[in-house]
Design goal:
single chain, 6-stranded antiparallel barrel, Thrombin, subunit H, 105 residues, 1 helix, 6 strands, globular, mainly beta
């Protein structure tokens, strides 16, 4: 997975890449990191041109100069509408729709 995203906290706005996404959280590759515990929103550009806006807290950071910087965002802060949108998106990722054509057998 490699999705474009915008990370927004009280102190930072970053362009980033989502490398892993689940109902519990996401892994965000970025140029800077916020401290563990920071509340933030991540807007993900979904493949179907919809913007998926998720809120949560920074659970871990990789701030080692020898590795790409990254943050783990826990998504426990999601309201029901955002959680449903995330579930629909993940379902589409795991079970892609066909374009209406039947597969040949």
């Amino acid at each position: 997975m490699n999705l474009s995203a915008t990370y927004l906290s009280g102190t930072r706005k970053l362009e980033a890449r989502v490398s892993n996404l689940s109902q519990e959280g996401l892994s965000l590759q970025c140029e800077q990191v916020d401290p563990v515990g920071t509340t933030a929103e991540v807007a993900i550009q979904a493949s179907d041109d919809n913007l998926l806006v998720l809120s949560g807290k920074v659970l871990w950071v990789h701030d080692d100069p020898d590795r790409p910087q990254a943050m783990g965002i826990g998504l426990s802060e999601l309201d029901s509408q955002a959680r449903q949108a995330l579930e629909r998106y993940l379902e589409r990722c795991t079970n892609p729709r066909h374009d209406g054509a039947e597969e040949e057998q």
